[in-house]
Fold:
Amino acid sequence: MRVLSGIQPTGRFHWGNYFGAIRQYIDLQDDHDGYYFIANLHALTTIRDAELLQQLTHDAALDLLALGLDPDKATLFIQSDIPEVSQLTWILMTCTSMGLLERCVAYKEKKEKGIAADAGLFTYPVLMSADILAYDSQWVPVGQDQVQHIEVCRDLANSFNHHFKSTFVLPEARIVGSAAKVPGTDGEKMSKSYDNTIGLFEELKPQRKKIMRIQTDSRPMEDPKEPEGDHLFQLYQLMATAEEIEEMASLYRQGGFGYGHVKKALADVAERYFAPARERRQELENHPDTVRDILKAGAERARTVAAEVLARAEEACGLTAPKPH
Ligand code: ADP
Ligand code: TRP
Structure:
């Protein structure tokens, strides 16, 4: 089963990205043919600083590898290293109705807020469709917010297959992280847009400080509290062992402790949980050639598949002559 997903390098990854998405993508590499890429072409619609985009793209690759993406099991590459995807985007664009894109929430929301939208943002779902179709992807693990884009992709693939001949594999969305909305430092959904994130590879000391400043309610320390629904407890659950979680839950129910205690315990388990990834990241940082080689090999593998799909599409719509059989 070919599984594909992309992640935009629009900021450093945070706990929400990891527990809500990245961890599941990485888990799939064991039993599936995983294709994962860093969506720098999509990021161009928001980042207009060359140095920053380079840095964030590089950081994203290092982060994914450090977190366990294994280049021997999955194919990791950078979106713009596969020019076939941009060529396929144009072909798909000619099968895309304006109305379909006008209904896309990401664009609609920006427009309603009065934010100037460029054609890149408007046609973003077409590029995303090309990303998916170029590799004959069958499963696309994404967050709930991206499901509409997979529907667009299916529409475009259907429309092309119908106009010409059956060319594209129809992908299916696989929703990840729907159960886990990781809370941020203010208790709301963690997101870089809300400035409430805890970065995966932040320096330990400032990270600890941030954790100690997580907002909590002001109930007196003596009151017993229900752990379920408490955002500190939710975060703790993501990284503690089963026994630790049980112990913490009974402490909540007993009362007589302070949130400071929970925060300290949270900082401790977080440090322990991500220690191996931090170590791997450091190792990769010391070996930039290794990372370059991994991305190069990934791009080569991905290009081979994309070139074949593009050739199929070009032939189907008459851009190239049919190959003699
Ligand atoms: P942000 O909200 O910080 O801009 P993105 O939209 O770039 O994050 O998210 C990338 C992926 O991480 C998406 O698939 C999204 O579903 C997931 N994700 C982001 N924040 C959270 C969160 N707080 N809880 C669960 N999943 C999240
Ligand atoms: N649009 C996705 C996001 O913002 C990233 C992405 C680009 C993607 N191309 C994709 C995800 C193809 C899955 C498949 O999260």
